[in-house]
Amino acid sequence: MIHIWVLFMIFEKIKTIPTSEELLDKAFRRSTRTMAGKKIDGPTSRCEANEAMLLTAANILTDNLANITRMFPNFESLSPFYYDLANILIGVDEIKKSLSRIDWASSKIHTMAREYVGKIRGNPTPGDTRKEAFGRISSIINSIEPDLKLLGDARNILRDLPDIRDEPTIIVAGYPNVGKSSFVSYVTNATPEIAPYPFTTKGILIGHMVVNNIRYQVIDTPGLLDRPMSERNDIELQAITALRRLDAIVVILIDPSESCGYEIKDQIKLAKEIQAQFTLPSIIIGNKSDRDEFRKVDGVDGFISTKTGDGIDDLVKRLVEMIPLPEKEFEEPNPFGY
């Protein structure tokens, strides 16, 4: 089985995507150096030097373009979680189209270079023919500048995706500003941005905690609002992807003090909808029990304060008990007794 974190490591192999200007500058500078190293003492050597210039530039461009297409993973082999995230944040079809155009440009330049090599040989003005070839090559490279930019943006986004691993997982969900990031920060080594305004968490953040020598990953998701799926923004859809695609348990945090800016009835409604829509085991926990305006409400499985730490140890113990640990693989007994 290919583990999800192995697939994640593929993104880290994607190097910086050059611009069309950078590609052309690299190719033509190398081409000029090739000409400088040639001894020209007649028509034949002049043709050979221009041919070498053209092939050098073309080979550099085709190799660089081919490398770009090879660096990106086969998206059909990605886990559903990473596929969905890539689709939300960039658009998998758009990436595929750009990669296809890069591949087309590489093949077109290769074919064109061979065509112009034939025109250069025996030509009394090989420099003019080579310059014509360079002009057409430049047009091809400039035409894929939007694709290079899209792939460069995709590369930066994909490399920043969270490192989700195959280990016991806890997802923290709920309305904005109910204390999700504070909870993750309290129980793990994560340091998410925490502030008293909605949608502080712009993407999925990961923290880890160790209980009884077992490491658990705790996922801080962006805040969700109680609205139809079609109206959710890209930030919210990342939370939905985690709930839909990961094997985990879910802590749905609510804020009975309503200091988050949302009424408790709407928070409870969202919590119940999460439980109904997703098959993951879940519990509803009221946060901010330290606040004067806090009040206990029905339909909640417990209460905590991420400010004072009250109730969090008991909650963590309860969450750990909810997660079935993977069974140890059966090992054949050693007939020699060791």
Automatic annotation (TrEMBL):
Listed EC numbers: 3.6.5.-
Coiled-coil features, chain-numbered ranges: none
Pfam families per the UniProt record, alphabetical: NOG1, NOG1_N
Enzyme class: hydrolase
Limits of the OBG-type G domain: 168-338
Keywords for the protein's UniProt record, in alphabetical order: GTP-binding, Hydrolase, Nucleotide-binding
InterPro entries documented for this protein: G_OBG, GTP-bd, NOG1_N, NOG1_Rossman_fold_dom, P-loop_NTPase
Keyword Nucleotide-binding attributed: yes
Gene Ontology molecular function: GTP binding; hydrolase activity
Family annotation (PANTHER family): NUCLEOLAR GTP-BINDING PROTEIN 1
Protein name: GTPase Obg
Species, as recorded: Methanolapillus millepedarum
